[in-house]
Design a protein that fits this description.
Layout (H helix, E strand, L loop, with lengths): L1 E9 L4 E6 L7 E6 L2 E5 L5 E7 L1 H4 L4 H4 L4 E8 L2 E8 L2 E9 L7 E6 L3
Parallel strand pairs: 1-9
Antiparallel strand pairs: 1-2, 2-5, 3-4, 4-5, 6-7, 6-9, 7-8
């Protein structure tokens, strides 16, 4: 499944926010790694990503985070959640964690260029 990503980066507060276009609100917000939070809707599908202290969490420059070319892939299978984030085709984050959030099996791409 592919959806359009609306992303923004606040350099002053060093905060990255990514939201699925057309989604409003969220049902729950889960910390999937130190500093990376995933919002899901009532159907347990991902709707947003919130990362405070983003340059530290992603170990990258603030200039990189200002790019409009962002892709996030969320894959859930066999009880695991895989989260990968690329900026300008360079992977800046890769997370694997237990899927204790009720997210169904899916392969979900959120892309700012769709």
């Amino acid at each position: 499944m592919e959806k359009r990503l609306i992303s923004s980066y606040d350099e002053i507060n060093d905060t990255f926010v990514g939201k699925v276009d057309g989604e409003h609100g969220y049902c729950a917000d889960y910390g999937i790694s130190d500093g990376v939070f995933l919002g899901i809707n009532n159907a347990n599908f991902p709707t947003s990503v919130f990362v405070p202290n983003a340059s530290e969490v992603f170990n990258t420059s603030k200039e990189t985070l200002e790019s409009a070319d962002v892709k996030i892939n969320i894959n859930c299978c066999d009880g695991c959640l895989y989260f990968d984030m690329c900026i300008e085709n360079s992977k800046i984050c890769s997370i694997r964690c237990k899927n204790s959030f009720g997210i169904p099996n899916l392969n979900f791409l959120i892309d700012s260029n769709i």
